[in-house]
Amino acid sequence: MSKKSLIINPGSTSTKIGVFEDETLLFEETLRHSTEEIAKYATIFDQKDFRKEIIVNLLKEKDFDINSLDFVVGRGGMLKPIPGGTYAVTDDLLNDLKIGKQGQHASNLGGILAREIGDSIGVPSFIVDPVVVDELIPTSRYSGVPELPRTSVFHALNQKAVAKRYAKEIGKSYDSLNLIVVHMGGGVSVGPHKQGKVIDIFNALDGDGAFSPERAGAVPVGALVKMCFSGKYTEAEVYKKLVGNGGFNAYLGTNDMRDVEKMVDEGDAKAAEVRDAFIQQMSKNIGAMATVLEGKVDQIIVTGGIAYDKGVVDGLKARCEWIAPFTVYPGEDELLALAQGGLRVVNGEEEAMQY
Known about the structure:
- With 355 residues, the protein is of the alpha/beta class.
- 38% of the residues lie in helices and 18% in strands.
- The protein has twelve helices and twelve strands.
- The longest helix has 24 residues, at 269-292.
- The relative contact order is 0.14.
């Protein structure tokens, strides 16, 4: 008997939802949120009712009976480091999503919304391959300050999904390949996948790697320390400069790469320079991860919303194609990956992991 699922994938600038019957997508929608809309809410959790209302209203517009669902899956969030897999949204997991165990991120809302909607109709709720999937090798955890170890926080679901998709398309197993996966969306992350494990990571959420549409990425640390103790800003204001108002938002006043592309096409020299800086920083991240794989890179995979921007992709190829060939999967395959993770549990193929 077929199973229907609602899939919820909150990002920093959008909420993507999909309704599946088994692995067949019945419909999907990307509900975009402007910087001004998001700015109304002090915390990520404060956005819950705003995003839930949009989801429920969309289902009504589609004349979809929410009570026909068999399970609900949300994108995983900033939990404690855990192995990959499908997790039931237990009370402990829900609480850690609410408090942001490892930080505030829109993905925290995935499990929260899944649990709330699932409970309202009496069906189970899950998360799959959350952003805190941790497969780092010991040497990747060193930062230079023992009290500040590097942590694994990245777009694990999409990186894993496109890596497995590429492996399937070429007729090889994921765990037989060395890949560099480049995710570029509201946030960016670059990971070396060595035989099925992401052994290191550049992520722009918490001060790592390239800047992104709304995150600062790595910044000059000494200057940041002085800013923090200048007395001009609160802790929350400094953090907002790094996550939310950083990157393209700070330089060009937009977190939408389509706006940036339009500005460049219209001859805006500043926009062109900022985009070139982004390409340079992303390329540096790719080059660094090639050394983690000791130069043995089978393929570079570029994914996420910014992968639709031909100028950015061509810029990355010009700088990095000497390392390995490129495969580009614009957008993401996360909705299907989430649905498949839930299906494996409800169909009895595997047990839900307990947080």
